[in-house]
Design brief:
Shape: globular
Structural class: mainly alpha
Order of helices and strands: EHHHHHHHHHHHHHHHHHHHHHE
CATH class of the largest domain: Mainly Alpha
Number of domains: 2
Largest sheet: 2 strands, parallel
C-alpha cells in the first residue's frame, strides 16, 4: 500500500478545497447549461432532436467510459499530474466547443470533454481523501457537495439568460476562466508525488471496461428507437455485459488493477454505493420531467424553466449545509434516512400535480424534494468513502461515480420509454385518436398523467433507498485507519 500524504499547511488545504470546488462547479455547468440549450441547437444547426441530443449523449457516454479509469491513471502517473492535465484538457475542449464550425464538430469536442470530465469527477473526491486530514474530510466534502449543488442551481438559469442575450458560444467560453483558476490553485496546493505502478499499460483491461461500458450505454440510449427486443439492443447489451464481466475477472487477478473491486469488501462502502445508485435513478430524469411539465405541457419558455429550478437548487444547498451542521451531532444513518423521507414527500407531491397546479406549486414541491436530497449527499459519500482506507480512495471514488453514471443513463432511458408508453395509453383511454401532437390540449391531458406516473415510480425508489439506509452503522461518522498517514509540512 502506498502512503497517503496529508497536507498540514492550512493555506494549502484551503487552496486544494478551492480548486476542487471550482472544478466541480465547472463540471456541473458542463452538464446543466448544454442540456437546457438543446432546443436552441436544433434551430442553430438546422437539425432535429435526435441529432442534436448527441451533444448531450456523446458527452454522457464518454463520461461513463472514462470514470473507471481515473484511479488507474492517478496511481500510475500521480493524481497531481492527472488532475492538472485533465484540467488543462478541459480548458482546451471548452475552447474547441466554442469554436465548433458545425454540429458534428461540436459533438466530437463534447465527447472529448466528457472523457476529461469522467476523469476529473472521481479525482475531486480522491484528492480530498488523500490530502486532507481525516478530521476535516467530512466538512470539506460537505463544501464540495454544496458547490456541485450550486452548479446545478445556476446552470439552467445562466444558460437561459445567455441564450436570450448572447451567442451559444459563450456557454463554453465561461468554463475557460474557471479552469484557469482551478489550475492555478491546484498547482500551488497539490503535493508533488510520483506514480506507483511500473507495470506495462493494461491496454486490454482499458478496452474491456471502456468498450463494455460504452456498449451498455449506447444500447440503453437507443432502446426507444431500436426497441427492447431488437437484435441491435440485445447485441449491445450482451457484448457490453460480457466485456464487463471479463474485465471484473481480469482485475480481481491483477496486482495493479484498473479498478480494485476489493473496495466492495468494506460493508459501509457497498451499502453506500447501492444507495447512491438508487438515488441516481431518482435524480437523473428529474430535470427532464420538470422540463416536459413546464415547457411542453404548460407552455413556458426554457428561460422560465431554468429560473424555476433556482429555488429548489438553493434549498439543496441548504440541505447540504444542514447535514454539515448536524454531522457531528447525529449519525449518518439518521441524516440519510430523514433526508430520503423528506425527498420522497416532495416527490410524491409532484406525482399528484395536474394541469392547474402551476409553476409556484411545482417550485415548492421541487424545493422539498431537493432539500432532502441535499441532506443525503455528504453523509452518504463520507460514510462510503470514509470507511475505505485512503490508499484505496481513488478506486472507491471511481466505482462510486461509475455506478452512479451507469444507473443514471440507464434509468433515464427506461423511464423515458415508460413516459412515452403511458402518454400513448392515457391518450387512448381519454378517447382521443390520431397522432399525438405536442402543444395540444389532448396531449397535455395525457402527458401530465404520464409524468405523474414517473414521479410516483421515483417515490417508490426513494422509499426503498430510505429503508436500505437503515442498514448503515449508526455510530461512526469519522472512521480512522491507522498506519497509513504521512504528513506533508509546508
Amino acid at each position: 500500500m502506498e502512503s497517503v500524504v496529508y497536507l498540514e499547511d492550512e493555506k494549502k488545504q484551503r487552496a486544494l478545497l478551492s480548486a476542487v470546488v471550482v472544478a466541480g462547479i465547472t463540471i456541473m455547468l458542463n452538464n446543466t447549461t448544454v442540456s437546457i440549450a438543446l432546443p436552441s441547437f436544433i434551430t442553430i444547426f438546422d437539425t432535429d432532436i435526435r441529432m442534436a441530443q448527441w451533444i448531450v449523449i456523446g458527452y454522457m457516454l464518454s463520461l461513463g467510459m472514462a470514470m473507471p479509469l481515473a484511479s488507474y491513471f492517478g496511481e500510475r502517473y500521480s493524481y497531481r499530474k492527472l488532475f492538472l492535465t485533465a484540467l488543462a484538457a478541459m480548458g482546451f475542449c471548452s475552447l474547441a466547443c466554442a469554436s465548433a464550425w458545425g454540429l458534428y464538430s461540436l459533438v466530437f469536442f463534447r465527447i472529448l470533454k466528457g472523457a476529461v470530465s469522467g476523469v476529473l469527477i472521481p479525482c475531486t473526491m480522491t484528492l480530498l481523501y488523500r490530502h486532507i486530514p481525516k478530521e476535516k474530510q467530512p466538512h470539506y466534502l460537505g463544501i464540495t457537495v454544496m458547490s456541485h449543488s450550486l452548479g446545478v442551481a445556476i446552470g439552467p438559469s445562466i444558460a437561459g439568460m445567455l441564450l436570450e442575450f448572447a451567442s451559444w458560444h459563450i456557454l463554453f467560453l465561461i468554463n475557460v476562466p474557471m479552469v484557469a483558476l482551478a489550475l492555478y490553485l491546484s498547482w500551488r496546493s497539490l503535493p508533488a508525488d510520483v506514480g506507483q505502478n511500473r507495470e506495462p499499460m493494461d491496454f486490454a483491461g482499458i478496452l474491456m471496461v471502456a468498450v463494455g461500458t460504452g456498449l451498455v450505454l449506447i444500447g440503453f440510449t437507443n432502446v426507444e428507437v431500436w426497441g427492447a427486443t431488437s437484435s441491435k439492443f440485445i447485441s449491445c447489451l450482451a457484448a457490453g455485459f460480457l466485456l464487463s464481466i471479463l474485465f471484473i475477472i481480469r482485475e480481481t487477478r491483477s496486482n495493479h488493477p484498473i479498478l480494485n473491486f476489493k473496495v466492495l469488501k468494506y460493508r459501509p462502502f457497498a451499502i453506500a454505493l447501492l444507495i447512491n445508485c438508487v438515488i441516481a435513478m431518482t435524480l437523473g430524469i428529474n430535470g427532464m420531467l420538470v422540463a416536459v411539465y413546464v415547457q411542453t405541457i404548460l407552455g413556458y419558455s426554457p428561460m422560465v424553466s431554468g429560473l424555476i429550478l433556482i429555488l429548489p437548487s438553493v434549498t439543496m444547498v441548504l440541505g447540504n449545509m444542514t447535514s454539515d451542521h448536524l454531522f457531528s451531532k447525529v449519525s449518518s444513518r439518521i441524516l440519510v434516512f430523514f433526508g430520503l423521507m423528506i425527498a420522497a414527500i416532495g416527490n410524491y407531491a409532484l406525482s399528484r400535480a395536474g394541469l392547474s397546479t402551476g409553476v409556484v406549486a411545482i417550485t415548492v414541491y421541487q424545493s422539498v424534494r431537493l432539500l432532502g436530497m441535499g441532506m443525503v449527499k455528504m453523509p452518504l459519500a463520507n460514510y462510503g468513502l470514509g470507511n475505505v482506507p485512503s490508499s484505496l480512495s481513488g478506486h472507491a471514488s471511481s466505482m462510486f461515480n461509475w455506478g452512479q453514471q451507469l444507473v443514471t443513463v440507464i434509468s433515464i432511458n427506461i423511464l423515458t420509454i415508460v413516459l412515452s408508453i403511458n402518454t400513448a395509453r392515457y391518450y387512448s383511454e381519454a378517447g382521443f385518436s390520431g397522432e399525438i401532437i405536442e402543444g395540444t390540449a389532448s396531449y397535455a391531458i395525457a402527458a401530465v398523467q404520464a409524468v405523474n406516473d414517473d414521479f410516483f415510480y421515483l417515490t417508490l425508489f426513494m422509499l426503498g433507498s430510505a429503508l436500505l439506509s437503515l442498514l448503515m452503522d449508526g455510530n461512526n461518522n469519522t472512521p480512522t485507519f491507522k498506519g497509513q498517514r504521512a504528513v506533508l509540512k509546508n
